[in-house]
Write a structure and sequence with these properties.
It is an enzyme of class 1 (oxidoreductase). This protein has 20 helices and 27 strands. It is globular. It has four domains: 1-94, no CATH class; 102-140 and 356-434 and 558-615, FAD/NAD(P)-binding domain; 152-200 and 436-555, Protoporphyrinogen oxidase, mitochondrial, domain 2 (Polyamine Oxidase, Chain A, domain 2); 219-320, protoporphyrinogen ix oxidase, domain 3, CATH 1.10.3110. The strands form nine sheets. Strands 15-14-23-24-25-22-26 form a seven-stranded mixed β-sheet. Strands 17-10-9-21-27 form a five-stranded parallel β-sheet. Strands 18-19-20 form a three-stranded antiparallel β-sheet, with no helix packed on it. By secondary structure, the protein is α+β, with helices and mostly antiparallel strands.
């Protein structure tokens, strides 16, 4: 593995550190800025108007000035003052996206389609954009199916992937902006928090040995509830959390650990096995003992510990502070959203789309199909790619086509991308294959009745934690979603009878431990039906049921994920390859859309983007 040194700029015979460019690998033939690929960092004089690097060092500022010898190795830095000059850099025109460039996108799921969308909005029609998709449909794991019920004329929608979206934070606003720009506002279903349906969407239960118990709606609400318990029941770790100092916490703070280790250290073992593992089942279908706390939904509480010395203490302190908006971009985006739309969404628990979330995929596909410079290729996969730092990349497809592409964006799962890389680069990017992905069985069921058959009040559904053993959960069910409760109105047409829709999710990390025992779809249907009868007491048979095995559908961010992505970013920076999708920066729909947009913005602004810039901290 190469060691990394800062990038340096030669100015008047002196090497100055470039503060904007990522590090470059030591041992190269010359001090080289990663921002200009393999070309040496050459600076024009302070008075020059043009040049690959324009260098200025602010008046009165001290600059770290390492000397560079003939083979690019850096000696001990010296401190020197240069009045009236401030360091900055600009990419040479050779690495900007040219108007006649060809951009290739590997994968036609949500990340690939949104990447193509943002590119086509910002680039001229002389730039060709090609999207390759292995399957005969676009959309990846976003998949909605329609079923017509001849008996009562109902048209039912079932989701095999995501089914609702939370309009939270900058990522949530970016998704809403996309919905607006695609003219899908008339298809949006908003579930207000104050509405009974909205309250049901926030009501989540957990299956325990004593039956179903209500689960806090978020990580913060879970932790806030702990000090309200009788003092005798508060784990010693909570008292330590409240009494510890910031300095003590920073002393023992580490870069990353598993969710289980973090929760046990801060709050004791009890809530982890009972509650946290169930929450992790619902989001990642994963094992909380192996997933990274820093790269999961628990990142916010991990940051509170580092900043304030304790989680509960940090929540109290942060509540009292007047924080500005998360970013200027979020402020600007809020202003551009239609007032009526935003007013309706500010009190929204979740939102969905009529016809299911695949409505978004169809809108993206149709929008792109109308663009003369966008080529959508289904049933054609990419077999091999050879990214380059200073010339077009070589792409070979399953149909034997050979393409030369100026910039590649991979929206493939990390393991698939790794298998497509040419051997020299593949061997350097083994961090792509550290994180596994889990397989989930998804079973949709529909029941007819004249009254509500679900024995518990309207809710999002329930999760089954790791503490429930095989005697109560023999089929390794992760959770059950009450589709009829949490997203009514998704069907464009419903009959007069009461219809109850449920989705059962099975397997995940349990299947990873027993790869030879993944059930067939028929077995999944039997297992799901038995689970519903046993755990909910619904004795009648469903009038409709379908099952799918979603192979390797959810990436598992193992401990150390942030550090590995930072290393990947620095390795990829010289190449004309970006990586986006759920394998890197978040598994949710909002995360995927935001990562695709951020990558396109970075690419067009800087001429280079890895898609992993957020990890370079």
């Amino acid at each position: 593995m190469w060691a990394y040194q800062p990038a340096y700029v030669l100015l008047d015979g002196v090497a100055w550190r470039c503060p904007h460019c990522p590090p470059f690998p030591s041992g190269s033939l010359s001090a080289s800025c990663a921002g200009v690929a393999a070309a040496p960092c050459r600076a024009a004089s302070p008075t020059a108007k043009e040049g690959p690097m324009r260098s200025y060092l602010g008046y009165g500022q001290a600059a770290t000035m390492p000397l560079v010898n003939r083979v690019g190795k850096v000696s001990q830095p010296l401190i020197r003052r240069r009045p009236g000059i401030r360091l900055s850099c600009s990419l040479p025109n050779a690495h900007r996206i040219k108007e006649d460039s060809r951009i290739g996108i590997l994968g036609g799921g949500l990340a690939g389609l949104t990447s193509a969308y943002y590119l086509s909005k910002r680039l001229p029609e002389s730039t060709q954009i090609i999207v390759w998709e292995k399957a005969d449909r676009f959309g990846g794991w976003v998949q909605s199916s329609r079923v017509h019920d001849d008996k009562n004329g109902a048209s039912l929608v079932f989701e095999s992937g995501p089914r609702s979206v939370r309009p939270k934070g900058l990522a949530g606003l970016i998704s809403l902006e996309l919905i607006r720009d695609l003219k899908l506002l008339d298809s949006v279903i908003t579930i207000p928090k104050t509405h009974p349906v909205g309250q049901s969407a926030q009501n989540r239960y957990i299956y325990t040995k004593k039956g179903l118990q209500k689960l806090p709606s978020s990580v913060f609400s879970l932790i806030r509830s702990l000090p309200k318990r009788p003092i005798s029941l508060i784990p010693r770790a909570i008292l330590q959390d409240l009494l510890s100092t910031t300095e003590e916490s920073k002393t023992r703070s580490i870069d990353d650990e598993s969710i289980q280790e973090f929760i046990a250290r801060r709050f004791g073992d009890g809530i982890g096995e009972e509650l946290i593992s169930g929450m992790v089942h619902g989001i990642y279908a994963g094992d909380y003992k192996s997933l990274s706390v820093r790269s999961s939904l628990f990142k916010s509480v991990w940051e509170l510990e580092r900043r304030y010395g304790g989680v509960i203490k940090g929540m109290r302190s942060s509540d009292k502070e007047q924080h500005p908006s998360d970013s200027n971009e979020e402020d600007k985006l809020r202003k551009t959203l239609d007032g009526q739309l935003f007013d309706g969404l500010v009190n929204c628990s979740v939102w969905g789309l009529k016809g299911g979330l695949e409505t978004l995929i169809v809108a993206l596909r149709d929008w792109l199909a109308k663009k003369p410079n966008v080529i959508l290729k289904s049933t054609e996969s990419v077999e091999s790619i050879e990214p380059s730092s200073d010339s077009p990349s070589k792409v070979t497809t399953s149909l034997g086509a050979y393409e030369q592409i100026d910039h590649l964006i991979s929206a493939l799962p990390p393991q698939v991308l790794h298998s497509c890389l040419s051997p020299p680069l593949r061997n350097r990017l083994n961090d792509l294959i550290v994180n596994p992905s889990v397989t989930v069985g998804v079973v949709n069921l529909a029941y007819r009745s004249t009254q509500r058959i679900n024995p518990i009040p309207p809710a999002f559904g329930y999760l089954i934690p790791a503490s429930i053993g095989a005697e109560l959960n023999p089929h390794r069910v992760l959770g059950v979603v009450f589709d009829s409760d949490m997203m009514p109105g998704v069907e464009e047409k419903r009959g007069g009878e009461e219809l109850t829709k449920l989705t059962v999710m099975l397997g995940g990390h349990y299947y990873s431990k027993q790869l030879d025992s993944i059930p067939t779809t028929d077995q999944l249907i039997r297992q799901a039906s038995q689970t519903i009868k046993h755990q909910l007491g619904i004795s009648q048979d469903p009038f409709f049921v379908q099952a799918q095995i979603q192979k390797d559908c959810i990436p598992q961010y193992l401990v150390g994920h942030h550090q590995r992505m930072r290393a990947l970013h620095r390795l990829l920076h010289p190449f004309n390859l970006s990586i986006v999708g759920s394998g890197y920066s978040g598994v949710g729909l909002n995360d995927v859309v935001k990562s695709a947009k951020d990558n396109v913005v970075n690419l067009l602004n800087n001429g280079r983007s890895t898609g992993l810039e957020s990890f370079d901290t």
